[in-house]
Every structure is written in C-alpha cells, then in structure tokens.
C-alpha cells in the first residue's frame, strides 16, 4: 500500500512539474505566421491523389444522379398532389350538389305528405276511415299523427276495433325508445 502511494505521488510530481513548463512555453510563444499557399501548378498529383480525385468524381456523379431522381420524384409528387386536389374539389362540388338534391327531395316529399294529410283531414270521416282500414297500421299511424286531433278522432271512430287498436298501439309506441336523458 505504501509503495502504491509513493508511485502515485511520484507520478503527480513529474506531471505537475512538466505541465507548468508546458503552459509557460505556450504563453511565451509568438503566433506562427501562416505559410504562403502553394500554387496548384507547382504540385504534381501523386498516385494517391489521382485515386482520391477519381473517387470524388464518381461520388459526384452518383450524387448528381440521385439529385435528378429526387427531382423527378418531386415532380411526380407535385403532379399527383395537383390531381388529388382537383379530384377533392370535384368531390366537394358533387357532395354539395347531392346535399342540395337530397334537401329538395326531402322538402318535396314532406310537401307531398303534408298535402295528402290535408286531403285526408278534409274528407268525410267515414270515407277516410274506409281508406285507413286498408292501410297498414304503421302507415295509417303516420298520417293520423300529423292530423288535427278532431279529424284523427273522427277517422279512428270509423275504423274497426282491430284496426283502431293496431293504429293506437303504433301511435303509442312511436316514442317509446327515445332516450329520456
């Protein structure tokens, strides 16, 4: 143990003494003057330099080829992007036209149902009941739900008891599955 401590102490003294001298030398040196550049014409390319030059030229050709490939890909991507944007715009227009058509169809259908409901309301109760007797209970309930209560009551009174019961069940259960909260 003592021997190890002595060896480490000796190493520290040696390094410490030389380190101080090296630092002092560094501060006392004058800045080195840059050497004059060597003209390219004065150098003779060695065999190693020629090999390195050929490798650099080959690498430059590879880079140029890759750059042209990347440029071609970018061009194709740009064209594809433009095509996608054009298709998206046409789809957006088609969607708007479809929504407009659906709205017109729904409003026309709603208008037809409202008009037919008004016709049934203005019919004599006995004549309307005869028509409602032949309708399916779901279909009849749809019209009766839209009618004024007085007209619907007159038609229901003219129906057979089975038909009136079926329509009443449909009317009562129409909103049974609506969420309460």
From TrEMBL:
This is Flagellar motility protein MotE, a chaperone for MotC folding. Keywords: Coiled coil. It comes from Poseidonocella pacifica. Residues 74-101 form a coiled coil.
